[in-house]
Amino acid sequence: MKNAITLCATLLFGALSVQAQEAGLPLWEVGVFASAGSTPAYPGSSDRASRALVLPVFVYRGEIFRADNSGVGARVMRTDTMELDVGFSGALPASSEAIPVRRGMPDLGTLVEFGPRLKWTLGQPTPGSRLRLELPLRTVLEFNGGVRDQGVAFEPGLVHESRDVGGGWSLSTRASLIFGDRKLNGYFYDVDKQYATSQRPAFEAQAGLIATRLAFATTKKLTQDLRLIGFARLESYAGAANQHSPLFLQTTGSAVGIGLSWTLGRSESRVSN
Q: What is the structure's pLDDT at 14?
């Protein structure tokens, strides 16, 4: 469900997920992350948004509270094959004036998602890889001159992670389906009567599929403190619940990005993931 402006976070946390299999990681790390990327403005949009950002990075791998490759949250339960946590993620605002089909409509505000996620390890095809099922269910809040509930997102997916696939590269592949309730889909696709025009008729969204997504993330350790990260994502909106909305303009989308992560400091104490 994430839009263009969260691509840098997707690059960092998605690509670095392959590190999750490593043993003896530092309890905490601090550093800087720089990235550039391009992605659709929202699912089904024909407009793109490109960003270049430099962000501070803090990683903490506590037994319960964590800020790592999976995001920010709290681990509630963990066994050898299953983990339940409560996670957070977000998206920065986007101006509707920059999206011609939305011009004159309210801006898309800052979004914060939080909720439970079940992670189930299905197997380890090779010593350096694993296959996992993830079932995140998250409430979406919008911060835009106040706080508003914007519905619920559900993104079941399969994740395959491989370390050292050749030349020091590691790879993470994710296939998922993104569903939204009526309120969340309405946030992207509703056209209220007061914003309707001859080219943009009124429309009321319904709950259902938002997108089918296939994402690839790769990372290469250049030095002990420097990592190169790449990201590509393909999305299909065919069969989406709201493809008849006047804000829905195309059935495919793609996103690409590249980044560098520079670790400035780390703890001496080590933990297993």
A: 45
The predicted model scores a pTM of 0.82
> Quick check: is 148 in a domain?
yes
Could you tell me the two tokens for 17? 């997920």
Q: Which domain holds residue 143?
A: 4-262
Q: Is residue 269 part of a domain?
A: no
- How many structural domains comprise the chain? 1
Bridge partners of 252, per DSSP, are 236
Residue 76 belongs to a domain: yes
Residue located via tokens 């104490």: 269
b/e burial code for range 174-192 (CB count within 10 A of at least 16 → b): bebebbbbbbbbbbbbbbe
Ranges 13-17, 64-68, 260-264: which has the least confidence: 13-17
Cβ count within 10 A of residue 229 = 21
Residue 61 bridge partners (DSSP): 66
pLDDT the model gives residue 152? 96
User: Is residue 268 a part of any domain in this protein?
Assistant: no
Side-chain half-sphere exposure of 164, counting CA atoms within 13 A: 5
Instruction: Show the CA angle centred on residue 166, arms to residues 160 and 167, nearest 5°.
Output: 130
CATH number for the domain that contains residue 120: 2.40.160.40
Of 53, 52, 187, 178, nearest to 111 (Cα)? 187
Per-residue pLDDT band for 55 (boundaries 50, 70, 90) equals: confident
Tell me the pLDDT tens digit for each residue of 75-93. 667 788 998 888 777 676 7
